[in-house]
């Protein structure tokens, strides 16, 4: 579908929404399942694997590392580890623009015999990984930074990690902790990992759950505000060689938000009844704003139609939904403040600046804060009759495109430049959005 999309893409104004959406497999869990297969060097069939650009980048990296990948019927991939020894010479692994893949591969390559160069797009090579490199070096592997300090590309001579105690500053990204926890399974002894600063901690809980699904339990606790983990050496393996990826709560947030924003009811299918994915909590945000959320044995239903209430929110635990909440806040009754998300400035774009800029372009009143946004809601915000469409920039960032599409559904008169960027995480987004617009 993306090849035939007009650019800019005109978003259809929706008087209400109705229908059923089955979000794709979780991007977070897809990354973790592939990474645990890599760390364990065991074959696995991963069902409902997300088919999106970030996961395609991981698949390509595995093939460059000698793995064999084969699609299976019903949706999914069979991954088979290399049968021989390490490849000759340094092997370049292109993470493209996938930040999760970069962090996971840097740690996983450290426990995979071979000579690896982990690289990515120009923007990805600006995103920091210094704390992860520092922690890994304390555990033994040789890592050379080939570009700017603390960033990709890096060259790693992989083999094993030493056991021991290591502290990491995960104030920029929880992925540092997740990467070390999974790589630590192949260490020579137990690893005690301390994280005195940890953002987006629910993503670490998702890592722990997927590790448990692969037969690896991790000791976890908290003392004086510091998260502590103990990883014992263990070779992860999918139960029975098969693993099914749950639906993506992050992707589900967009049709759910469309219901709250435009009115009507959307049914979300394929999501786990109980989820460790941090963005499941976004449904609670929708309830606070005035939407109704109901859990049924078959689906999650979200229904809107009344006025939206402004909120004061700390979204440090679910930063990916900051642009989504900002889109809702533009039409809420009152002033919404989003706090404690300064780390959004090092995502695919500076998401705070991008969200503020594009919401203003759509006519909203937005103040950019050092660690968040302040948005003065206007329930009557709409395009003037006969006015020209406003073209929204997406900054090569899928979440800016998807959140501003929600604004267009309510306001009318918006077009999205480079709509194909949604393929990074949700290739079926435009079809799903069009399918529920009424």
Can you put this structure into words, describing what you see?
The protein has 438 residues and is an alpha/beta fold. It is 30% helix and 24% strand. It contains 12 helices and 23 strands. It has helices spanning 27-40, 53-64, 99-110, 130-138, 175-183, 201-213, 249-262, 282-289, 322-329, 351-361, 398-411, 429-436; strands at residues 9-10, 17-21, 44-47, 68-71, 76-80, 91-94, 114-119, 142-145, 154-158, 164-170, 191-198, 219-223, 226-231, 242-244, 264-268, 292-295, 300-304, 312-314, 335-339, 365-369, 372-376, 390-392, 414-416. A 4-stranded mixed beta sheet has the order 2-15-17-16, with helices on one face. Helix 1 packs across helix 6. The longest helix has 14 residues, at 27-40. The radius of gyration is 22 Å and the shape is globular. The two termini are 21 Å apart.
């Amino acid at each position: 579908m993306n090849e035939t999309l007009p650019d800019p893409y005109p978003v259809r104004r929706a008087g209400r929404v109705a229908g059923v959406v089955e979000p794709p497999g979780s991007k977070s869990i897809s990354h973790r399942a592939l990474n645990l297969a890599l760390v364990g060097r065991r074959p696995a069939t991963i069902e409902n694997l997300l088919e999106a650009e970030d996961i395609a980048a991981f698949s390509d990296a595995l093939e460059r590392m000698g793995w064999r990948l084969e699609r299976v019927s019903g949706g999914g991939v069979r991954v088979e580890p290399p049968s021989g020894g390490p490849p000759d010479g340094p092997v370049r692994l292109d993470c493209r623009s996938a930040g999760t893949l970069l962090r996971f591969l840097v740690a996983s390559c450290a426990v995979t015999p071979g000579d690896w160069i982990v690289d990515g797009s120009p923007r990805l090579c600006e995103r920091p990984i210094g704390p992860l490199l520092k922690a890994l070096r304390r555990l033994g592997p040789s890592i050379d930074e080939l570009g700017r300090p603390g960033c990709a590309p890096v060259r790693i001579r992989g083999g094993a990690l030493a056991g021991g105690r290591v502290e990491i500053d995960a104030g920029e990204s929880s992925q540092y902790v997740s990467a070390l926890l999974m790589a630590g399974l192949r260490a020579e002894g137990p690893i005690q990992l301390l994280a005195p600063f940890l953002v987006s901690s629910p993503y670490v809980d998702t890592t722990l759950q997927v590790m448990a699904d692969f037969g690896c339990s991790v000791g976890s606790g908290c003392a004086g505000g510091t998260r502590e983990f103990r990883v014992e050496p263990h070779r992860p393996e999918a139960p029975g060689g098969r693993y099914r990826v749950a639906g993506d709560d992050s992707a589900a947030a967009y049709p759910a938000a469309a219901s709250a924003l435009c009115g009507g009811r959307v049914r979300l299918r394929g999501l786990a009844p109980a989820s460790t994915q941090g963005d499941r909590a976004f449904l609670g945000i929708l309830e606070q704003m005035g939407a109704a959320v109901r859990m049924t044995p078959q689906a999650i239903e979200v229904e809107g139609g009344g006025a939206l209430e402004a909120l004061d929110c700390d979204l440090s635990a679910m930063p990916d939904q900051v642009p989504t909440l900002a889109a809702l806040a533009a039409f809420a009754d009152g002033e919404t403040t989003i706090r404690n998300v300064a780390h959004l400035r090092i995502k695919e774009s500076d998401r705070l600046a991008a969200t503020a800029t594009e919401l203003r372009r759509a006519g909203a009143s937005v103040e950019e804060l050092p660690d968040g946004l302040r948005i003065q809601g206007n329930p009557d915000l709409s395009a003037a009759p006969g006015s020209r469409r406003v073209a929204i920039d997406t900054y090569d960032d899928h979440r800016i495109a998807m959140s501003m599409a929600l604004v267009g559904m309510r306001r009318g008169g918006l077009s999205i430049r480079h709509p194909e960027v949604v393929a990074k995480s949700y290739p079926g987004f435009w079809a799903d959005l069009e399918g529920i617009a009424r």
